[in-house]
Amino acid sequence: MRFNRHDLVFTRWQDIALQGLDAGHFRDLIASGQIPGIVRREESALHSGDPWYDEAEEVYVGFVYPYKEDGHRIRYASSVHGSRITRAIRPYEVPHMSYERRTRPLLALSEFSASYPLGVWGSAALEAVTGLAYTDDTSDLDLIVRGYGRDELGELAHTTRAFEEAFSIRIDVEVELTSGFAINLKEFVGNGPQVLAKGINGVELLERELAEECL
């Protein structure tokens, strides 16, 4: 099994050491398995080799508390060995799940995904998977796509702007490359000679032509 950025993973979190996390509702949500870990890049232990984790190595994850405190969300970083992960949900699975269209980002997700094959991550994905109130009407909508050609991405960028105006929200779209890295859609359809690519292995600048070859 492979684990990439934005995947939502589950295990017996009560068996994972939660050092530095005070007892409370957030800790209880993690330990009870009600919220998943979000696969992430670990800056202090940069990954090498394939641009994803697998079952034979440590998988770095983050947790996000669904309720804001003083206007901010509490986050907690941890890790789990890949062999202990019991379930993984990829962003492309989430739009097909049953969720309440409770806020503008979730309404936009429902309409957007009806017209375009895409995945979702961030707060909208967490709410769709857990049923907890991760979004409000001002939340961003974070999407990811793969398998689109350059012209199709241009059309998608145009549609994204239309949805941002229609729903009065910010929509960020990542374009997943065959190399395992991802680039921002708005940057990709720009005119710069290079684009910023993010992946488990780190962040790097790619020549635009190379990025297009990896669509």
| Overall average pLDDT | 93
* Total number of helices: 6
Helix and strand sequence: EEHEEEEEHEHEHEEHEEH
Weakly predicted, low-confidence segments:
none
Structural class: alpha+beta
Q: How many independent structural domains? A: 2
What topology, given as strand order, has the largest sheet? 8-9-10-11-12-13
SS strand fraction:
25-35%
Annotate the secondary structure layout.
Layout lengths: L1 E2 L4 E3 L14 H7 L5 E3 L13 E2 L3 E7 L10 E7 L5 E3 L14 H12 L3 E3 H9 L10 E5 L4 H18 L3 E6 L5 E3 H4 L5 E6 L2 E6 H6 L2
Parallel strand pairs: 9-10
Antiparallel strand pairs: 1-4, 2-3, 2-7, 3-5, 5-6, 8-9, 10-11, 11-12, 12-13
Question: What does it look like?
Answer:
This protein has 215 residues and is of the alpha+beta class. It folds into 2 domains: 2-89, no CATH class; 94-213, no CATH class. 26% of the residues lie in helices and 26% in strands. It has helices spanning 25-31, 104-115, 122-130, 150-167, 185-188, 208-213; strands at residues 2-3, 8-10, 37-39, 53-54, 58-64, 75-81, 87-89, 119-121, 141-145, 171-176, 182-184, 194-199, 202-207. The strands form 3 sheets. Strands 8-9-10-11-12-13 form a 6-stranded mixed sheet. A hairpin with a 5-residue loop joins strand 10 (171-176) and strand 11 (182-184). The protein is globular and about 50 Å long. It starts with a strand and ends with a helix. The mean pLDDT is 93.
